[in-house]
Design brief:
Layout lengths: L11 H4 L4 E7 L4 H10 L3 E4 L5 E5 L2 E7 L3 E8 L4 H9 L5 E6 L5 E6 L1
Antiparallel strand pairs: 1-5, 1-6, 2-3, 3-4, 4-5, 6-7
Length: 113
């Protein structure tokens, strides 16, 4: 997947936020395919390891890495836009889960499809 730096950088308020988002896309080990989905939606991306990527927009930033069970997403996002992330992941046609945690580590919201 090509690197794309044309997206909007992460707003500093989200990089300082004490929230976190974790997710798993099942049925694929291709971090490039998941990162490509975000790039097509206008996010920036860059390689972060041999098989991993970082994707970013003004309101969210994720590390995307392959695991034995699928592709792991880890990062921060505006809690009000978690459904936007879920909508993108639905386009893959694979089962996925997203979890939003507050600064205390408590689960605030969960999205499964």
């Amino acid at each position: 997947m090509d690197i794309n730096d044309a997206g909007t950088p992460l707003d500093p308020r989200w990089s300082q936020a004490e929230i976190s988002v974790c997710g798993l896309v099942e049925g694929t080990r291709s971090a490039a395919a998941v990162a490509g989905l975000f790039v097509r939606a206008g996010w920036s991306s860059r390689s972060s390891s041999w098989e991993g990527y970082e994707v970013e927009t003004a309101w969210a930033s994720f590390e995307i890495d392959p695991t034995e069970r699928g592709v792991l997403l880890n990062g921060v996002a505006d809690p009000e836009r978690l459904d936007v992330v879920a909508g993108l992941l639905r386009l893959l046609g694979r089962p996925f889960g997203l979890e939003l945690y507050d600064g205390e580590g408590a689960l605030v919201r969960e999205v499964r499809a």
